[in-house]
């Protein structure tokens, strides 16, 4: 009885394909290490080579079974792996992502694999064996001869052929493959063999070397004696670093037969972080009582979800550390997610100090090789804790017993593009369920989604109300820029300027945030601060300059650009805001003696640039740290006493139902950077809208108050967490066709779902980018609906669309983004 395997490919095609597993097949990636395995050893989670169209493509086995399909199947040619590279647990998680976020299974699987093991691969071309009759003429003949001239069974990348013969070459390759004259194989870009390194050790006992003493030994004997002092084995580089060992001497030593070499896997540390051991602090009274239920859940080894809500500096990280220790003590692994490793070096370092060699850091700036090594150390169980950003939710930690998500409200946890458009927090919750693990998400400003989960008993809220060791929350002053129009010192209103001067005089430090997010395409009134919003959706309207009108990119409402502010009749309305560089220049002008460090996209592109800037600031080598949102995250500098936000409103300009939530989070986060040591801190928020709820509540650190009010307005408009928002995105180079397709598809969705749940379509906030036009529609789904519902709705919609779609609509790309944050 033959058996079959369902195979997923890393393309947007949602379904899997079934292949037959032959009784015997080859295993391994290169021809030199040929091992044959039997059909039974082909298991889910292994990569295989299978014929797909006219290529030998790499796919992933997701299921094996005995159900003979009613169509003819092709055979699997070869397995690439001798053991599954994806565990059943992670495969199941990928399947959940595939349904819930409506990606293809292959895309979800790919997200779960490290970059180095990407099963997207490079196609390579080679001669088919036993070809007797070459093509007669033309490009086909040219390419054929070219391949024929390559020695043996050498292959060449398809790219190279395209480079030489252009489009015509690609078509010729297609024809050659169809005729069976050549073969196209996909090869993984990075092989998963560990990196090898040559090390040298003694072939004789080192004592014998010492006995070689003579009155005037030749240089190479002296070299040998130097070597005898070294701990061997050592690499060539290490050996040549020794005094007196020149390349020539080294050659003599090698020829002498005293040393021997062997290949070992180079155990490059996955992280450049130094391990400075530190012990675990004991929890203070409040922390200890908050931790107790977490400890119990860890002991019980059951799924349990906690939301740790505590102001910055209250000791959330200390609690994570205790939870991790207790999880490890039970022999289970831990997973820590942080918004971005590069932005949170201090947090990472704290975990590293305690758990050092048990941690694998999955850092987006590691090389593929390093990332792969970190990943395999977890898979082999050499490391038990993974720490990383969004994609680390798929880290192959064995038997995970605890998942921690720090700054759980952060929008970087949502992948917007490309697919799979998953949210790491929601995915982590599923992973915890699958593993009977404890999940703890923490924040000073939890997402409304998590607050709602706590309110409906889906998770338990734990509160830390005070800062550790009596550090006080800083005083917040809101500066209404309208009142200070004639009292500005550069970009700073006078009260903030004076506070900065005072801090400089006392040798204290200052952080200034110049928020650059958002589009410069929103319209604000300079006199009353009003941002023009959609009357139906309460999101800011986007200014489409070319058409001189304003448009809501949720529902499509549009109006002409008004001449006057609708609320105060002032004529000073328009696009406001200035660039970071200009702010910095003006700042230097009014504070000529201050040492200013700038941190933004431009100054942090190098591998450790971000960390270097922070270390410099931490050492006191600068007085003012100025930058974009990134200065708001996770920094702990006790000498910072003044924090200023130069423009608090720009977050509101972001056309999203979440902009107020984002603004509050940003302001409270940046405020938390002030007064972390023993000196009290001050915070100044400059704004044109002093009465906005985010500012009113930020002034008194009243997050619960803000959350209550925001929750109410979400409820009124049926926004998340009271619904689940999915965005359908349409893209094409053809502006008419994209609009037509958007109308057709949205109409189909409206027919499938109830009234009022489908909004749009409308042009996107950025309607045209690189000559690609985008439209979008938004759908509100019931928040309790899961992946099966989502899959059914969109499967049906696409099915219907295939029948109704306008002619030549093929070039319009339609993508689905469930739980979009925009
Ligand atoms: P959060 O993660 O909530 O911002 P942290 O865990 O970073 O708070 O704590 C803020 C500061 O207080 C840190 O410097 C931390 O080392 C210190 N701290 C917190 N709790 C304790 C404790 N129980 N013992 C010693 N130091 C603590
Ligand atoms: Zn106005
Ligand atoms: Zn609207």
From TrEMBL:
Initiates the restart of stalled replication forks, which reloads the replicative helicase on sites other than the origin of replication. Recognizes and binds to abandoned replication forks and remodels them to uncover a helicase loading site. Promotes assembly of the primosome at these replication forks. This is Replication restart protein PriA. The lineage of its organism: Bacteria, Pseudomonadati, Balneolota, Balneolia, Balneolales. One of its GO terms (biological process) is DNA recombination. Gene3D superfamilies: P-loop containing nucleotide triphosphate hydrolases, PriA, 3(prime) DNA-binding domain. It catalyses: Couples ATP hydrolysis with the unwinding of duplex DNA by translocating in the 3'-5' direction; ATP + H2O = ADP + phosphate + H(+). The gene is priA. Its EC number is 5.6.2.4. GO terms for molecular function: 3'-5' DNA helicase activity; ATP binding; DNA binding; hydrolase activity; zinc ion binding. InterPro entries: DEAD/DEAH_box_helicase_dom (IPR011545), Helicase_ATP-bd (IPR014001), Helicase_C-like (IPR001650), P-loop_NTPase (IPR027417), PriA (IPR005259), PriA_3primeBD (IPR041222), PriA_3primeBD_sf (IPR042115), PriA_C (IPR041236). It is an enzyme of class 5 (isomerase). Binds 2 zinc ions per subunit. Residues 264-287 are annotated as: Disordered. Residues 297-464 form the Helicase ATP-binding domain.
């Amino acid at each position: 009885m033959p058996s079959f395997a369902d195979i997923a490919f890393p393309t947007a095609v949602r379904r899997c394909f079934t292949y037959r597993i032959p009784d015997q097949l080859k295993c391994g990636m290169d021809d030199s290490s040929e091992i044959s395995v039997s059909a039974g050893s082909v298991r889910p989670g292994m990569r295989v080579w299978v014929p797909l169209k006219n290529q030998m493509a790499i796919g992933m086995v997701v299921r094996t079974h005995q159900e003979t399909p009613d169509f003819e199947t092709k055979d699997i040619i070869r397995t690439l792996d001798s053991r599954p590279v994806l565990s059943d647990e992670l495969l199941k998680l990928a399947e959940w992502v595939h349904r819930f976020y409506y990606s293809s299974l292959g895309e979800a699987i790919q997200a779960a694999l490290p970059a180095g093991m990407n099963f997207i691969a490079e196609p390579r071309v080679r001669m088919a064996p036993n070809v007797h009759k070459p093509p007669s003429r033309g490009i086909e003949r040219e390419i054929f001869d070219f391949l024929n001239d390559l020695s043996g069974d050498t292959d060449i990348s398809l790219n190279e052929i395209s480079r030489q013969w252009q489009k015509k070459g690609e078509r010729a390759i297609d024809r050659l493959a169809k005729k069976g004259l050549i073969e196209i194989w996909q090869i993984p870009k990075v092989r998963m063999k560990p990196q090898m390194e040559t090390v040298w050790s003694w072939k004789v006992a080192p004592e014998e070397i010492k006995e070689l003493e003579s009155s005037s030994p030749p240089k190479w004997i002296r070299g040998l004696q130097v070597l005898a002092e070294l701990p061997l084995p050592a690499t060539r580089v290490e050996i040549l670093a020794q005094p007196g060992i020149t390349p020539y001497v080294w050659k003599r030593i090698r020829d002498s037969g005293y040393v021997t070499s062997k290949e070992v896997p180079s155990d490059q540390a996955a992280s450049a972080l130094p391990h400075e051991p530190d012990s675990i602090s004991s929890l203070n009274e409040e922390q200890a009582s908050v931790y107790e239920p977490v400890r119990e859940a860890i002991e019980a080894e059951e799924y349990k979800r906690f939301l740790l809500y505590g102001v910055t500096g209250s000791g959330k990280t200390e609690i994570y550390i205790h939870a991790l220790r207790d999880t490890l003590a039970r022999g289970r692994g831990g997973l820590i997610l942080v918004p971005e490793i590069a932005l949170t070096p201090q947090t990472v370092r704290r975990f590293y100090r305690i758990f050092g060699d048990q941690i694998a850091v999955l850092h987006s700036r590691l090389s593929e090789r390093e990332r792969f090594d970190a990943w395999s150390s977890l898979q082999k169980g050499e490391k038990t804790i993974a720490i990383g950003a969004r994609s680390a939710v798929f880290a192959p930690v064995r038997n995970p017993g605890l998942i921690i998500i720090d700054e759980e409200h952060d929008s970087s946890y949502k992948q917007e593009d490309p697919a799979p458009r998953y949210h790491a927090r929601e995915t982590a919750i599923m992973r915890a369920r699958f593993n009977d693990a404890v999940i703890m998400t923490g924040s000073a400003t939890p997402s409304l989604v998590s607050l709602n989960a706590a309110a409906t008993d889906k998770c338990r809220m734990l509160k830390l109300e005070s800062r550790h060791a009596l550090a006080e929350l800083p005083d917040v002053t809101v500066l209404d820029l309208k009142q200070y129009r004639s009292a500005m010192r550069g970009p700073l209103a006078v009260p903030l300027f004076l506070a900065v001067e005072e801090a400089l005089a006392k040798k204290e430090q200052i952080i200034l945030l110049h928020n650059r997010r958002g589009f410069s395409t929103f319209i604000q009134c300079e006199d009353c601060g009003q941002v023009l919003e959609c009357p139906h959706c309460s999101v800011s309207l986007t200014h489409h300059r070319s058409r001189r009108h304003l448009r809501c990119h949720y529902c499509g409402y549009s109006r002409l650009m008004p001449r006057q502010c609708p609320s105060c009749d002032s004529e000073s309305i328009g696009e406001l805001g200035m660039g970071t560089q200009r702010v910095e220049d003006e700042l230097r002008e009014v504070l000529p003696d201050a040492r200013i460090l700038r941190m933004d996209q431009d100054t942090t592109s190098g591998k450790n640039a971000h960390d270097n800037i922070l270390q410099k600031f931490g050492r006191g080598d600068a007085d003012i740290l100025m930058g974009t949102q990134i200065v708001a995250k996770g920094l702990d500098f006790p000498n910072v006493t003044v924090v200023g936000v130069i423009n608090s409103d720009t977050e509101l300009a972001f056309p999203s139902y979440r902009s107020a939530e984002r603004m509050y989070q940003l302001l409270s986060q940046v405020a938390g950077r002030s007064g972390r040591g023993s000196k009290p801190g001050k915070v100044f928020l400059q704004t044109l809208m002093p009465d906005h709820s985010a500012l009113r509540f930020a002034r008194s650190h009243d997050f619960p108050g803000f959350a209550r009010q925001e929750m109410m307005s979400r409820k009124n408009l049926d926004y998340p967490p009271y619904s689940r928002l999915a965005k359908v995105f349409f893209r094409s180079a053809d502006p008419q066709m994209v609009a037509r397709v958007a109308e057709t598809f949205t109409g189909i969705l409206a027919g499938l779902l109830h009234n009022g749940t489908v909004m749009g379509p409308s042009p996107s906030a950025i309607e045209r980018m690189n000559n690609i036009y985008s439209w979008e529609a938004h759908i509100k789904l019931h928040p309790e609906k899961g992946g099966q519902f989502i899959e059914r709705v969109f499967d049906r919609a696409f099915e219907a669309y295939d029948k109704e779609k306008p002619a030549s609509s093929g070039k319009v790309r339609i993508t689905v983004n469930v739980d979009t944050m925009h």
